[in-house]
Amino acid sequence: MPSSKWRSLAVVCAVASAAASVLIATPAHADGTLRGHAVERGKFIGAAIATTPLANETAYRNIASTEFNQITAENAMKWESTEPNDNQYTFTGADQIVNFATQNNQQVHGHTLVWHSQTPGWVQGLNATNMRAAMNEHIATVVGRYANNATVVSWDVVNEVFDDNGNMRQSFWFNTLGQSYIADAFRAARAADPNARLCINDYNVEGINAKSTAMFNLVQSLRAQNVPVDCVGFQGHLAIQFGFPNDIQQNMQRFANLGVQVRVTELDVRMQTPRTAAKDTTQAQYYTNVINACNAVTACAGVTIWGFTDKYSWVPDTFSGEGFALIYDNNYAVKPAYTAVHNALDGGTPTNDTTPPTTPGTPTASAITSTGATL
Ligand code: G3I
Predict the structure, then answer these.
(1) How far apart are CA 115 and CA 181, in angstroms?
(2) Full-prediction pTM beyond 0.85?
(3) What integer pLDDT is reported at residue 350 of this predicted model?
(4) Is 351 among the domain residues?
(5) How confident is the model at residue 116, as a pLDDT?
(6) Pocket test for ligand 1, best of 314, 317, 318 (most atoms within 8 A of CB)
C-alpha cells in the first residue's frame, strides 16, 4: 500500500517558501530558506529539536519552522522520556515535537528505540526473557503510537551498537541478549509500523574505517536474512581538529549499493575554544563537504543538524573546552556555516532518493533468547 509516509518532499516546498518571510536572520547573499533549497534538491534538511526552548522561545520556534523540513527529537523520544517506569508511558515531549512538525509540514525522524544510553535502570536489570519482552513491548507501543501519523516517517531502531573499534558494544543489551536483539528490534518495529523507514545509526562511521566496515557487514548480513533494515544513519559529530573524513561520499555510496537509504542524522562540527574567523571558515567547509556528499549520492535522503543554535548544543557539556558546533550562534545570528549549508543546497540538479523500503508486512521474530550471535 503506498503510504503518505513516502510522500514527496515537494509538499513541503510551498510552506517553506511562504515561511521565508518571517525568517529572523538571513545574510544578504543567501536568498531563500534552507528547506526551500533542500526541496528543490529532492533532499531534506533537518535539525534536532529540544522541547524546552521550543515551548519558551519565539526565535527558536521561528527558525525551527522556517529553515527545516525535517526534525528529530533531541531527547524527547528516548526510552527514559517515553517509558521511565515499566509500562508507564509519557508522550508529552514526543507529541510536542510531532505536533510542531505537523503544523509546519515537516517530517519527524524518531530517535531512538534501542540504545545503551538514556534507558532507565529498570530495563538494564532485567533477565534475558524479560528484557526481550520489554524491548518488543516498548517498540510496539512507541512506534505504534505514530504508525498512522503521516508526520513520523522513520525511526532509529538501534543506536550505537558498535564500540569504537567496530566490535559489538558490550552494552547491557548485548550482554543480556546477544546480537540477536538487533534483528528482533527491527522486526518489532516493522510489525508496529509497516510503512516507517527503519534505520541503524552510529557515530564515527562517516568515513571508511574499521567501524563503518563493521556496520557495512552487519547491514549486509541483516538484509540477507530479510531483517527489515531500510536505512543507515551516519551521525556526523565532527571536529575541525580531527580532520574531515574525505571518503564520506564513497562510504555513503557503498552502503547505498546494498540497497539502503542513507542519511546524515546528527551533524555538528565542533571546534576548540576560542572561536575564531579562521575556525569558522574551516567549520563552514566541513558543512559544505557533508551537504555536497549527500547531494552526490542519490540514496542520501538528507542531512539533519544536531540542533541549530550554539546556545543549546550538547557539545560544551560533553567536551570541555570545545563548542560553537552549529550554524547559528548563541544569539540566533547566522554563522558562516549557515551560509555554507545554504549555498551547498542552492541550485543543482534534483536527486531524489528512490530507495525502496524493505517489503512491508508482518515479520516473524527470531525467537532467539540466548546470548548466541545468530541473527
Ligand atoms: O532532563 C534533565 C534535567 O531534568 C536536569 O535538570 C538536567 C541536569 O543536567 O539534565 C537533563 O537531562 C539532560 C538531557 O540531555 C536533556 O537535556 C542530561 O543531563 C544530558 O546528559 C542529556 O544529554 C543528551 C545526550 O544525548 C545524552 O547522551 C544531549 O542533550 C543529546 O544531544 C545527546 O544526543 C546524542 C544522540 O541522542 C545520540 N548520538 C550522540 C548524541 C550526542 O551525545
Answers:
(1) 11
(2) yes
(3) 80
(4) no
(5) 98
(6) 314
